[in-house]
Amino acid sequence: QVFVCDLAPRLQDVDLRKVFGFYGDIVSLEHIDEASGGSALITYSTKEAAQEAVDIVHLASVRGKTCRCLLWSTVEVIWKTMDLGYRLQLEGLDRKITSQAIQDMFSLFGPVLDCKVQMDEEEQSRGYGFVHFAQKENAAKAEQLLNGMQIGSSCIQVRVARPEDLESFTGCIYSLQAAVSAVCQSAPAPGEWMPPVDYASGGGWEDFDGFEGWEDAPVPHG
User: What 3-state DSSP class applies to 153?
Assistant: First the structure.
């Protein structure tokens, strides 16, 4: 299973199938309309297809918006390590730094499970982001070496993320009871990293009249 978040507004299931069906047969697709940004849970017929979708679509632009594409097994690991020092908050970022640049930079210290530069409605950087490592010691090393370092035109601040930082981001799937329900039938009770969300207030996707430019979706090379 693949979880996709930070989707462009008003995408319909048929639009997502056109993009993600390129990588393999889709068994099911649950489109979750969340208040903090559209997301979808996609089940492929093979693990290889799911991995290829993640490898190509993660941090790629789909209809003008950078989306994040994660294996559900990765989401579960992130969920369990949210408040254990694996996740770093980044502030004072140069406005030209992208999520992919964050991925490339912090991967020098070890495997990165997820990262993001928060964008505004015009897909321009708000100057802060996060990075979530697979290993706690790699996060600690990155914090030690990069905190206060000048990258681009700014000196970045790097610290261990706190629960309240999550409120500053859109498309953070870790707070979604609906995402868990799509997989587990019954969602766990809201916790410190998982505040209750009113999903009924989302709205707006059903008015979309088509998906422009889906032909430009990322495709494999080689």
Answer: coil
Residue 185 class from Cβ within 10 Å (0-12 exposed, 13-18 middle, 19+ buried)? Answer: exposed
The residue among 47, 52, 39 whose CA lies nearest residue 5 is 39
- Give per-residue pLDDT as tens, 184-196: 443 344 344 444 3
For residue 188, report the phi and psi dihedrals to the nearest 5 degrees: -70, 160
* Strand, helix or coil for residue 113: strand
| Predicted TM-score (pTM) of this structure | 0.77
Question: Structure tokens of 183?
Answer: 């997989």
Q: What is the pLDDT of residues 28-74, one digit of tens each?
A: 998 876 554 588 899 999 999 999 999 999 999 888 889 999 999 99
Residue ranges of alpha helices (H) inside 131-193 are: 136-146, 177-184
- Whole-angstrom Cα distance, residue 151 to residue 122? 23
Rg of the chain (C-alpha set):
17
**Three-state DSSP class for 222?**
coil
Do the Cβ atoms of 97 and 117 come closer than 8 Å? Answer: yes
Structure tokens at 169: 């981001």
- Quick check: 41 and 3 in contact, CB under 8 A? yes
